[in-house]
């Protein structure tokens, strides 16, 4: 597998480079008969698109998705949904300076080594622009999943961290601010901090937390395709992600079993939820929640030294229009990938009993 | 995919329940002509097996692997390697008490919900006994990978945490103590702590750190099958794992891009390695290192309340021979899964250029 | 994919060489809750096993299957079913004569070229012995499919061809004779002919016809995974198969559309069935029928000239205990592969509507 | 797998309906560094396109392919190649008459049953229009395969059958006539016959023969993914195909082993080639040749009776612009699918030795 396909039954293949003609994908396996709200799809794309606020990259791209197939009279037909987003704002000139040199902590060097050469314009295939295709497919998955609620939000920017967990937050406030942090006071601080970082020409990391609610019991295919393992892979496949934890996560390491075990209520729900809604790789009906760590964006608008293709040292200067912090725009991407995982397991689950 | 297969070209399918006749697997895609050291495979199994020290479960199982196919005159033939480990110490009686009730934070409830019923003996398929099959296949993968060095070790037990990173440690000391922590002083403390926990009938979590060295540049298949994404999935598929981070990980969130970026040396190596040996999902030749968080084992030897199949509250008592802390035995499992991922990407990499 | 796995959701991986320790497989994805009749499985194995009559190879192998996992209290658990058949009658000495030379029209040469060397004993992995594992899995698939009737039979041996089609035959007579031809008069002629061929030390080809009845409408996943395309691949993967046709097949080439079209009855069934029960790659509820052409077995008990590994011409003599005609024993294999295809599409079909 | 993806490493996913916005695909896994001749791709599309001669459908569609990604400065980058062909000649009105009734021997009925409803315009996804995407990908595969020669041609139309085998023909004449039969005299008869059939408003079946030359030894992944098994599946997945045979095929059934066996020359080649270039599922370096049987096109321009969605009998009349015989346009499709199979196995083969 050359790595551009995700999912087994609800299956997305994406294509496209940052500065090519178009990006897009084929979503195969979406069941027939789903009435699609195309506006909702575009809305998720708008949450991801550049230029939406002062704290994200100021590139302007409408990111309008065109559907080519798989829909008839407003409903999915069960055949593959082909779609494309044409690239309209390709300032390839911006990238002349990286044609022959490798930007530190980008994929320039590794793509060159792996494939022998690369489409250097805007990072080519390694650009996070690819994730727009995921958002399209994820938005379809969300509609398929109907009653399942998928809410991601920013819980940390640099050292600024929410001191409440998701049950203490009003998640409907996530979209009320450009940071996408549901706690307005913290959001303000984060926003100010990101602006400061931007002014320095620097970047900062962050954490996106995601909560999946009303997930039916039984999703996940042990032993390798555990629900949280596929969620983890999905998140780690997003650009700039360095870590994933669910339920008690890394903090759970310090707990004792007697504390960490989630006692049952008589209806099968549990009194606590350190497990994070998954036991033995299978959803147990409780909320699934997880954290996704994003490193600071590698493109800094500063002078730096690096090497060229021939191993010569070169001095250069970061340019272009980049995100000082990636997490606000990553929120819909995290949701999209979670939706794709859940949609796939929902279909797989149908095959489990005679 | 019903979830019991791992890998695309170097592909392992496992079978087996804790207390069934045998566990085992089929390893398909191991290239032909590899001279196999069967002792080395058994050695890794011995590192995982129960009863090896005072701080692990006292069950006694020899865990002897039998090979059924795929080998001829000491070498792999390119055909699937079938193998089995017969279960010899199946004290099924030990599990009568869980037949009709659900142990908290185990997979009893979810398996019953997913499949309609379950093999309750020793956790059945959800038991970590399944990982012995992974260790067999991983040990073969290690031999295929030859020059790549794969070293996992225990870096944290409860709150006891190594204060050195892997470059400051002598990894050859990992096997010198039953905890598998390469720092003897810390190992002693961890060992004492685990014994104490065990005396309480309780359990504790821990972290396994793993370092992959001499990995050639170019492994990983973006965009979904990024090297670290598949490593993450591999680790998250191990029983009791709650989190995965690589390179700077969750700590990288607090860094600025200007700090986090890894400057190049003229030979393509980097001066720092916050990236953790992977850029854009592709190995860059630097060391790959990651942390895997394990929750405390759910089986505590204490009285507890839970529910039965019909939702009635029942009082019961944890029994059996269980691990107070899973990380010492998890070390070879983490290595095995890392080896499987690297072997698969090594084969996939051969398809990348004309 | 290294080629030893068949199916997407109902998925069989096999292992094993003709003269290794054991052959067997892992059947993953069989839904939970299926009460398995183990005798019925062994019965299908007995239909395939050597030594069952005077017209098949006189090797004696009990071919007793052992199940290692996936069953509990007589029912499938939804976890992988591991199984093995130990090889008991490995007269490896019989194969000393082929160690260093290539038998014409066998896989000796190609395996050596592909893998660098081979397990030459009895053909190793290329031996039809591998199909015993398919028969085990296929017998489980049959039980899962319940109401679907799967009947294969011998319709041609050399030029001796049934002059009736399946609707004119009493398929319950198939097992009444060693040829497995449901027309007793033709069966006698075929049997006599095979004995004659055997006396000559020669072999002869044949055709197996298979009929699938009560297949529900809707199985098959266009466009690539058409029902008949996967049936075709399944059949072509059986040793010695040279051709596959379904419905009107090669004869349909000579028909006009106005003749070939199957008019509908008002209940959706069709008046004729040139389509062979599949339209657009999807079952239409009518009988599915197809023919599978088998070449004459390559092992003849005659003197012949061939080459050795180094390209030297060598004279040798066919030995061993071989089938003069493969089709009688191929009948249960054809049924098994058909059952695996139908079981897989039955599970896939569940994912098609919202 | 929802069935719209073909291949494991050289992997094509297609999308698109006959009368939707566009058809197209994503070709993932094409190795980097391949200089692509875009004209050659368009040329193969032109060989498939409607309106190219008097004996094919008179629909006019330019079938111009647009590439969206995966190419940079004329070469493949190793990233997925996204492409689309916009539909320009969608006379949807032509299909009003089939909206509510099922055409015999089409996929109307089965799609409706499988998915609950269908895009009825021009057959939607079941239209052979989908194969244009295969031709694009196949043309890329051909360029990747370089030295391998892939030649398909028409060998039979109705009962008019070439009486020479491929070694007696000049395959460079295939494109010299609209039938694509390399024997000019037979081609003339076939052409006249097809015109006659067309005048009757009827259709006729045919056979496409394909020859693969210079295929290296070693392609094919036994046991399930035998080279000829995947070729067979590839061919059977093409619209209207009813049968596949390779090498001696169905005729081989009547041969004795002593006749059928292909004796070796000292260089590993064989004196005869009844095996058809494949032994044990692996190419042996000899020519691979196979026949593909196509039924008569189901759309006849005649009055006929059928049923509607509610099972009522309706009288209707075949309309539209259809092919009287599908084989002339099927030639490039057969070649494309053969190329995709060979390209995939070429990449897989790289993983076979250490």
UniProtKB/TrEMBL annotation, chains A, B, C, D:
<feature type="binding site">
    <location>
        <position position="48"/>
    </location>
    <ligand>
        <name>NADP(+)</name>
    </ligand>
</feature>
<keyword id="KW-0274">FAD</keyword>
<feature type="binding site">
    <location>
        <position position="321"/>
    </location>
    <ligand>
        <name>FMN</name>
    </ligand>
</feature>
<dbReference type="InterPro" id="IPR020541">
    <property type="entry name" value="Chorismate_synthase_CS"/>
</dbReference>
<dbReference type="GO" id="GO:0009423">
    <property type="term" value="P:chorismate biosynthetic process"/>
</dbReference>
<comment type="similarity">
    <text>Belongs to the chorismate synthase family.</text>
</comment>
<comment type="subunit">
    <text>Homotetramer.</text>
</comment>
<protein>
    <recommendedName>
        <fullName>Chorismate synthase</fullName>
        <ecNumber>4.2.3.5</ecNumber>
    </recommendedName>
</protein>
<dbReference type="GO" id="GO:0008652">
    <property type="term" value="P:amino acid biosynthetic process"/>
</dbReference>
<feature type="binding site">
    <location>
        <begin position="295"/>
        <end position="299"/>
    </location>
    <ligand>
        <name>FMN</name>
    </ligand>
</feature>
<dbReference type="Pfam" id="PF01264">
    <property type="entry name" value="Chorismate_synt"/>
</dbReference>
<comment type="function">
    <text>This reaction introduces a second double bond into the aromatic ring system.</text>
</comment>
<feature type="binding site">
    <location>
        <begin position="125"/>
        <end position="127"/>
    </location>
    <ligand>
        <name>FMN</name>
    </ligand>
</feature>
<keyword id="KW-0521">NADP</keyword>
<dbReference type="GO" id="GO:0005829">
    <property type="term" value="C:cytosol"/>
</dbReference>
<feature type="binding site">
    <location>
        <begin position="239"/>
        <end position="240"/>
    </location>
    <ligand>
        <name>FMN</name>
    </ligand>
</feature>
<dbReference type="GO" id="GO:0004107">
    <property type="term" value="F:chorismate synthase activity"/>
</dbReference>
<keyword id="KW-0288">FMN</keyword>
<feature type="binding site">
    <location>
        <position position="280"/>
    </location>
    <ligand>
        <name>FMN</name>
    </ligand>
</feature>
<dbReference type="InterPro" id="IPR000453">
    <property type="entry name" value="Chorismate_synth"/>
</dbReference>
<comment type="pathway">
    <text>Metabolic intermediate biosynthesis; chorismate biosynthesis; chorismate from D-erythrose 4-phosphate and phosphoenolpyruvate: step 7/7.</text>
</comment>
<dbReference type="InterPro" id="IPR035904">
    <property type="entry name" value="Chorismate_synth_AroC_sf"/>
</dbReference>
<dbReference type="GO" id="GO:0009073">
    <property type="term" value="P:aromatic amino acid family biosynthetic process"/>
</dbReference>
<keyword id="KW-0456">Lyase</keyword>
<keyword id="KW-0057">Aromatic amino acid biosynthesis</keyword>
<keyword id="KW-0028">Amino-acid biosynthesis</keyword>
<dbReference type="GO" id="GO:0010181">
    <property type="term" value="F:FMN binding"/>
</dbReference>
<keyword id="KW-0285">Flavoprotein</keyword>
């Amino acid at each position: 597998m050359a790595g551009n396909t995700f999912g087994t039954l609800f299956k997305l293949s994406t294509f496209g480079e940052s500065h090519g003609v178009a990006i897009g994908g084929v979503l195969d396996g979406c069941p027939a008969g789903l009435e699609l709200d195309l506006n909702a799809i575009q809305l998720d794309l708008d949450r991801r698109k550049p230029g939406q606020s002062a704290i994200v990259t100021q590139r302007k791209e409408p990111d309008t998705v065109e559907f080519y197939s798989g829909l008839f009279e407003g409903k999915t037909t069960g055949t593959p949904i082909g779609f494309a987003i044409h690239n309209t704002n390709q300032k390839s000139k911006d990238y002349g300076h990286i044609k022959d040199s490798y930007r530190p902590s980008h994929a320039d060097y590794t793509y060159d080594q792996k494939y022998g050469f690369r489409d250097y314009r805007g990072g080519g295939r390694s650009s996070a622009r690819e994730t727009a295709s995921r958002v399209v497919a994820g938005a379809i998955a969300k509609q398929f999943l109907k009653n399942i609620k998928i809410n991601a939000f920013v819980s940390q920017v640099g050292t600024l961290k929410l001191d409440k967990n998701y049950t203490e937050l009003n998640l409907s406030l996530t979209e009320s601010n450009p940071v996408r942090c549901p706690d307005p006071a913290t959001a303000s601080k984060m926003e100010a901090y990101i602006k400061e970082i931007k002014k320095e020409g620097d970047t900062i990391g962050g954490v996106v937390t995601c909560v999946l609610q009303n997930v039916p019991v039984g999703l996940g295919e042990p032993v390798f395709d555990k629900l949280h393992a596929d969620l983890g892979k999905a998140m780690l496949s997003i650009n700039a992600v360095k870590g994933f934890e669910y339920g008690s996560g890394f903090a759970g390491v310090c707990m004792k079993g007697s504390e960490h075990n989630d006692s049952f209520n008589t209806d099968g729900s549990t009194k606590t939820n350190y497990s994070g809604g998954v036991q033995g790789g299978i959803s147990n009906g409780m909320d699934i929640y997880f954290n996704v760590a994003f490193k600071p964006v590698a493109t800094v608008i500063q002078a730096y030294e690096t090497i060229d293709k021939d191993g010569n040292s070169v001095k250069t200067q970061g340019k272009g229009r980049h995100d000082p912090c990636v997490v606000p725009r990553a929120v819909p991407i995290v949701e999209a990938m979670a939706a794709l995982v859940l949609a796939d397991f929902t279909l797989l689950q149908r095959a489990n009993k005679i």
